[in-house]
């Protein structure tokens, strides 16, 4: 199995914390999650049922919630230890949800910035997989790259509750979510650099509405949502009033790094498919792997993978050490997104029409790779932000 060998060799440079854990995560994703991807991609009740069954199986296998805090029911791996498993989990888009690591961003954010009431009410249930959360920052009418223009508002009433009004879109997983964290303006006017705050809102609150689904290149999972004067308890403010963007930035740094690890896992998977096809497909002019132009696809893809992996792990190391990681995370995010797109594209090319058809995961991987260059901030944002930061040292 060329795909497995290459994946293990590259993702386990040192000894895993628990012997064999890497093999078990890898095997779980390949044997149980990947075969259910079509059902999970389609969404709806069948996908919910498939996800439930996978989660039960992950709990039985002792693989549930590896990076979530042990005191809340997770397995307590820190970021540095979890990184190598994140790549394996992420080889399927559905791995993190199936293995219970998907709530990591929400749990970390609420642990650090949630009120005591919010932490007690939601954290154990998020880790147990009884509650699902989503994150709503991007809006239809204002550029996601410029959150200062956020139009959603939250107004504080005399009783201390907040009333949230506005519209968000491309909110991943909103339709099945129990909680939504929303960025809203609490002070000032659109374009002011201050005055934005985060709230965690139960989706059962009157006035919360799922407006429509927004399929991305045919795949489900993204939603437009509306807040029509949704009343939110005062203690559901996340962080200080007006500190929404700094909490969001902290969350995004970790989120981009986790995504980069997962995209590496998917690029590695595509590389395995590319290599196997090249190694096994024959033709009148000899086997596919004997053509130099096919060998070039193999070389360029491997080069992309092996130059991107250290960048991503550098971002992990800096974040884990609590150091400023803006440059490293920006480099890692752009490189991982590009690598995923490049390797999947090469794998499709080497498969010919079969690479675009229904018999391989390549179309779904291509979709993820394309979206990767936009979500969590488009390439251009990271390119300019990294360049500006680096240039200040030379001014
Ligand atoms: C699959 C998917 C899932 C998503 N999930 C979520 C989610 O769960 N929650 C959430 O809040 N959002 C989510 N998003 C939204 C995503 O974060 C935004 O799409 C992204 O931040 C860009 O914002 P925008 O779409 O408004 O693009 P805009 O801000 O309108 O930018 C459009 C384009 O303009 C160009 N551009 C913008 N700024 C610059 C610049 N400074 N320099 C040069 N060019 C520039 C870029 O080419 C950019 O792609 C998701 C998006 C996708 C595709």
From TrEMBL:
Which stretches does the entry tag as region Disordered? 1-25
What does this protein need as cofactor? FAD
Q: Which GO terms describe its cellular component?
A: cytoplasm
What GO terms in the biological process aspect are recorded for it?
A: fatty acid beta-oxidation using acyl-CoA dehydrogenase
Residue ranges constituting the Acyl-CoA dehydrogenase/oxidase N-terminal domain according to the UniProt record: 20-130
Location of the Acyl-CoA dehydrogenase/oxidase C-terminal domain: 242-391
Q: Which SUPFAM superfamilies match?
A: Acyl-CoA dehydrogenase C-terminal domain-like, Acyl-CoA dehydrogenase NM domain-like
**Partners and quaternary state?**
Homodimer.
Name the family: Belongs to the acyl-CoA dehydrogenase family.
Q: Which PANTHER family match?
A: ACYL-COA DEHYDROGENASE FAMILY MEMBER 11, MEDIUM-CHAIN SPECIFIC ACYL-COA DEHYDROGENASE, MITOCHONDRIAL-RELATED
The protein in question is named Alkylation response protein AidB-like acyl-CoA dehydrogenase
Q: Which organism is it from?
A: Streptomyces spectabilis
């Amino acid at each position: 199995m060329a795909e497995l060998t290459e994946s293990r060799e590259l993702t386990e440079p040192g000894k895993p914390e628990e012997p064999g854990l890497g093999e078990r995560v890898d095997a779980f994703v390949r044997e149980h999650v990947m075969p259910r991807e079509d059902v999970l991609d389609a969404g709806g009740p069948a996908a919910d049922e498939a996800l439930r069954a996978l989660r039960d199986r992950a709990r039985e296998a002792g693989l549930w919630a590896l990076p979530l805090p042990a005191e809340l029911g997770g397995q307590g791996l820190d970021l540095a230890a979890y990184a190598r498993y994140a790549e394996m989990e992420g080889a399927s888009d559905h791995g993190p949800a199936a293995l219970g690591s998907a709530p990591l961003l929400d749990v970390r954010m609420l642990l650090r910035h949630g009120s005591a009431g919010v932490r007690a009410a939601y954290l154990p249930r998020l880790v147990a997989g009884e509650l699902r959360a989503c994150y709503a920052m991007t809006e239809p009418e204002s550029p996601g790259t410029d959150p200062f223009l956020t139009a959603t508002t939250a107004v504080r009433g005399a009783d201390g509750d907040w009333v949230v009004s506005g519209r968000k879109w491309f909110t991943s997983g909103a339709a099945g979510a129990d909680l939504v964290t929303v960025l809203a303006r609490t002070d000032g006017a659109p374009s002011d650099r201050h005055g934005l705050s985060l709230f965690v809102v139960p989706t059962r609150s009157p006035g919360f509405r799922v407006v429509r689904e927004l399929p991305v290149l045919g795949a489900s999972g993204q939603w437009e949502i509306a807040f029509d004067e949704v009343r939110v308890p005062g203690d559901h403010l996340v962080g200080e009033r007006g500190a929404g963007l700094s909490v969001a930035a902290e969350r995004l740094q970790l989120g981009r790094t986790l995504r980069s690890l997962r995209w590496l896992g998917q690029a590695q998977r595509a590389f395995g498919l590319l290599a196997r096809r090249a190694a096994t497909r024959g033709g009148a002019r000899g086997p596919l792997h004997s053509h130099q132009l096919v060998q070039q696809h193999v070389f360029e893809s491997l080069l992309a993978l092996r130059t991107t992996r250290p960048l991503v792990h550098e971002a992990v190391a800096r974040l884990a050490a609590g150091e400023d990681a803006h440059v490293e995370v920006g480099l890692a995010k752009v490189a991982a997104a590009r690598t995923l797109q490049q390797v999947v594209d090469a794998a499709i090319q080497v498969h010919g029409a079969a690479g675009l058809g229904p018999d391989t995961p390549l179309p779904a991987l291509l979709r993820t790779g394309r979206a990767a260059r936009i979500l969590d901030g488009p390439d251009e944002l990271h390119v300019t932000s990294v360049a500006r930061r680096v240039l200040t040292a030379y001014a």
